[in-house]
Design a protein that fits this description.
It contains ten helices and six strands. With 306 residues, the protein is an alpha+beta fold. The two termini are 26 Å apart.
Length: 306
């Protein structure tokens, strides 16, 4: 399959061997507006809106509720690594042959969720007492939820659907040929953009390993400043590079730019960290920056930048 340089006609693979997997969760909203304190604040500062006192009525950090949230996050990530994740939380395209592994991931998480929910029921009184203590006087006017309300709100679901496809003639039999042709072209463009954006997100995720985020500096800063290089950072990059290779192969799409990007980034996952000195660290950091720049140029050329 030859890929056009027109970003609106990014190559569309045959998705007939794929399904669309969606993982969704629900949870209890632990923060809410404190009515009395909000009134006091607005009176104090002369504000009638856009000023609210937000209180956390249940703690999630270092509690069983936090462990449930971590389970949701990790399960979602594990499922995404089984295929190509679409943009805007549309789901993940997974090969049908890989569905047993997807089901296994979910079933293990489901069993773990039930264990954690039972633990939450057992420790709920302690959670409430801790919250009341931390809120002090502000907690007196709060109506705290019951254990059933809180624990029952934590749920997760795995849905499997047919993947989005180009409109077929059978759906367009009642319209003119001209309209049908236009609709098929629009459908093809839509699917093309969907795959293009998914690959763009995949590559942006690889770049994040190097550039980092506000909350978590990436490998460029880590190599420059860390006294001891952490193996897991390089292992995580290698894991996601291997995932990108698997996705490209399983989707059956010819994407030379992805090959170019992966070849650019793969050496950084296999650096001999034990032999690095200050000079070689600087060289590697500069090489990473150059690779990020070249990769962003490719993304821009392909219309994959946000």
């Amino acid at each position: 399959m030859k890929k056009s340089r027109n970003t609106d006609t990014f190559p569309v693979p045959d998705l007939s061997g794929n399904v669309l997997v969606r993982y969704s969760t629900t949870r209890f909203t632990v923060s809410r507006i404190h009515t009395e304190e909000t009134s006091n604040l607005r009176e104090k500062y002369g504000s009638t809106r856009n000023l609210n006192a937000i209180v956390r009525i249940l703690e999630t950090r270092n509690t069983v509720l936090g462990r449930i949230l971590s389970l949701f996050t990790n399960t979602g990530l594990n499922l995404k690594r089984q295929g190509l994740s679409l943009a805007n939380r549309q789901g993940t395209l997974v090969r049908i042959k890989d569905l047993p592994l997807v089901q296994e991931i979910f079933e293990k998480a489901d069993a773990r969720l039930e264990d954690l929910k039972q633990e939450a029921f057992r420790s709920f009184d302690d959670l409430l007492n801790s919250s009341r203590l931390s809120l002090g006087e502000a907690g007196r006017s709060i109506e705290f939820p019951t254990a059933d309300e809180v624990v029952g709100s934590y749920t997760h679901h795995l849905d499997v659907h047919s993947p989005p496809g180009v409109l077929q003639n059978s759906f367009l039999k009642d319209v003119s040929r001209e309209v049908a042709a236009k609709m098929r072209a629009l459908s093809l463009q839509s699917q093309s953009r969907m795959i293009r954006d998914a690959y763009g997100g995949l590559i942006q995720g690889l770049l994040t390993h190097l550039t980092g985020t506000e909350a978590d500096p990436g490998l460029i800063e880590h190599v420059d400043r860390a006294q001891r290089l952490r193996d897991e950072r390089f292992a995580n990059l290698k894991r996601d590079l291997e995932h990108a290779r698997r996705v490209q192969k399983s989707m059956g799409i010819e994407f030379p730019e992805l090959d170019e990007i992966l070849m650019e980034l793969e050496p950084f996952a296999d650096i001999d960290r034990a032999s690095l000195n200050r000079e070689s660290r600087t060289e590697i950091g500069n090489a990473m920056k150059q690779s990020v720049g070249r990769t962003r140029e490719i993304l821009s050329r392909m219309g994959m930048t946000k």
